[in-house]
Amino acid sequence: MREYDNEWIKQQLEQLREPEYQAFTSKLLPGVEHILGVRLPELRKLAKKLAKDNWKEYLEEASDDSMEEIMLQGMTLGYARGEVQEKELFLRKFIPKIDNWSVCDSCCATIKLAKEEPEEMWNFLQEYLQSEQEFEVRFALVQLLDYYVNSTYIGKVLQQIDRIQNKAYYVQMAQAWAVSICYRDFPKETEPFLKQNHLDDFTHNKALQKIVESLKVSKEEKEYIRSLKRKSK
Fold first, then answer.
1. What is the pTM for the complete model shown?
2. Region 184-206 average pLDDT
3. Closest to 160 measured CA to CA, from 115, 193, 117
4. Which of 17, 52, 68, 138 is the most exposed place for a label (fewest CB within 10 A)?
5. CA 174, CA 161: separation in Å to the nearest integer?
């Protein structure tokens, strides 16, 4: 038996919602409906409680009535104890529910399976990198930039970024973000990619912009990076 059911969760969210924060969040996420306005730290506290309860039963029966309830599912998956194999079915059920960058990125920061089982999680992510669904691809990309920009995977990460065919806006922004993280941490390995890649001009130039905005990139490097900008045709 679960200690915390959907009714209890709804009551907690109702008590924690803030009208002003709801209005603020709605502006950041145009087109996203059913936003209650609960702050992330409060959602994380709730998710940790759910993760210590019977989390599998919760996820099987979880309500999708609000953005926050969906966010809770992803965070609970992250905080619950278990390996990739144990969580795979729940991840497959959760990932298609993602419909905005906030749920995607916040849950990616919580789902840290790649730290414990990098190869298993890498293999799991491959089909999502080739998905036709915008936020399925973004989920996989944000996992890559969060956990795989390291000496073992840097080449594979750049290769995967370059292969993506999905041209949805939030995919392009994640590609650019990922490239900037690769350059920040592995400039020598990433520089050849900046000179020759298959990114469209918007994504390529956005990646350069993000690199230039980084506080960890020197002035001299930034001048060089600016020189790689593609001119609009």
1. 0.95
2. 97
3. 193
4. 52
5. 9
Spatial separation of the C-alpha atoms in residues 89 and 177, rounded to whole Å: 28
3-state secondary structure of 139: helix
In whole angstroms, what is the distance from residue 144 CA to residue 174 CA? 10
Q: What is the DSSP letter of 97?
A: G
Q: Which residues does 57 contact at the CB level (< 8 Å), separation at least 6?
A: 2
* pLDDT tens digit sequence for 59-90: 999 999 999 999 999 999 999 999 999 999 99
**What is the C-alpha to C-alpha distance for residues 21 and 172, in angstroms, rounded to an integer?**
28
How far apart (Å, rounded) are the C-alpha atoms in residues 204 and 198?
A: 9
Angle between helices 154-163 and 187-195 (to 10 degrees): 20
Q: What is the three-class DSSP state of 190?
A: helix
Letter string b/e over residues 171-201, b meaning 16 or more CB atoms within 10 A of that residue's CB: bbbbbbbbbbbbbbebbebbeebbeebebee
Identify whether the C-beta of residue 128 lies closer than 8 Å to the C-beta of residue 137.
yes
Contact 197, 175 (CB under 8 A): no
CA dist 133 and 129 (Å) reads: 10
Tokens of 154: 């840097």
120: amino acid identity, one letter: E
Contacts of 169 (CB under 8 A, 6+ apart): 134
Burial class (CB in 10 A: 0-12, 13-18, 19+), 168: middle
Q: Is 56 helix (H, G, I), strand (E, B) or coil?
A: helix
